[in-house]
Amino acid sequence: MKKVFALLMFFCALTFNTAQLFAQDEAATEEVTTEEVVEEAATVTEISSDDVAQVEEATYTQAVKQKFIEGGWEFMGAVLITLILGLAIAIERVITLTLSTTNTKKLMAKVDEALSTGGVDTALEVTKATRGPVASIFTQGLMRASEGIDMVEKSVVAYGSVEMGKLERGLPWISLFIALAPMLGFMGTVIGMIGAFDAIEAAGDISPSLVAGGIKVALLTTVAGLIVGVILQIFYNYCVSTIDSIVLDMEDASVSLIDMLVKHEVAAK
Asked: Residue 247, exposed/middle/buried by CB under 10 A (0-12, 13-18, 19+)?
């Protein structure tokens, strides 16, 4: 719990510093004089292709910062926090699932060879030295081999459910952030529209520029929320697909383990 709280505080501090940096960049942009713009335009023809790419990248970054500021730091910051937390959990899940992937055929071949040469103890050494849920299920089954095939089956099924729960840990949080980011964006849009209509009411006139500017700023939060939702949805689907593949390997390996124990007659009847 302390680690989660520390992680949350770190991300909040990072977001606050990012928003402050955006504000500073906006103030620095407003201080650029006309003479500086003319000088930059005069030197464009002398810039190499690499410098042009750097200038375009800087311009794109500046445009993103400007849109972030225009959308309002309250809701844009909330959407940014959602993206940071969602990506942190998603990346952790991707790394964990990648490490949980095992070459099942190679593991089963090693276990089969160990059972034929050294028995259950040798096979246990092989499975304990291998990481992943499939190896963990093999270990649990082999530890109950002396209690009979029925006990091995029950142990494999029970521990398979435990391993599946470990694989799916964190996915509900990613799903929450996927739903939360667009909702925060829509909330910012609604509040921005209310502010635009308040400005129209205060001005006493419907100015096209006033309405268009207010609507543009209000819709920026929706765009940001949808982008965050799309990014996290890609990670979520990848995690779900990987988990399904690992679970399928676990089921196939469980059946193969029972067959190997019966084949070598190492389990009590």
From this structure: middle
Domain tally for the chain?
A: 2
Residue-wise pLDDT for 68-86, tens only, equals 666 666 778 888 899 999 9
0.70 exceeded by pTM: no
CA-CA distance, 131 to 108, in Å (whole number)? 13
CA angle 92–95–98, rounded 5-degree value: 145
Residues 98 and 147 reside in one and the same domain: yes
Which residue has tokens 């779900």? 240
DSSP 164-195: HHHHTTTHHHHHHHHHHHHHHHHHHHHHHHHH
Residues 105 and 201 in one domain: yes
Domain containing residue 233: 86-269
Q: Are residues 121 and 248 in the same domain?
A: yes
Q: Is residue 187 part of a domain?
A: yes
